[in-house]
Amino acid sequence: MGQTAQDVLTPAAVHGEREVKVTTNEAVNEKRALAVIRIAIGAMFVWVFFENLRKGAYTPAGYRNVIEHYLNKGAAPGAWKSVMSFVAGHADVAGPLQAASELAFGIALVTGTASRLFAAAAAGFLFTLWISELGAAWIWELLIPTIAAAALVATRPGRTWGVDALLSRRWPKLPIW
Known about the structure:
177 residues; mainly alpha; two-stranded antiparallel ribbon; 7 helices
């Protein structure tokens, strides 16, 4: 049986006894789809950073107000509300720290730099926001980007349209690319 260019296998996945062939074009399309998800999540973080900056949400008073809103209106577990109260009490540090984190997640994911590392950190961060907003926001609003960011950790999303493609050639054994 002769092979055509589309039949060239780039990893063949085996399910039970049946082999599933993935063509080169399909593999490229899957990598591009992951890059689009990475860039979209990164753009979301950059957008949120500038939106919150404009609203004054990173100032001590603005940050404290946001946290207190979730404390009063949300249904987060009691232990998590204790953490939120602590953070609200340190809004002068926590607000700018959150601002820097959101901007760093956004830039790293948009540019595809240390994508797996930043996707993991972003997923953890989004999960804490999701817990904080329980009962005060639409449940899927943060859950979907949390799941998408977590899924990126298992892939190599920065190797397509990202700085990770360059970095992985220089340091191929580092798992963050």
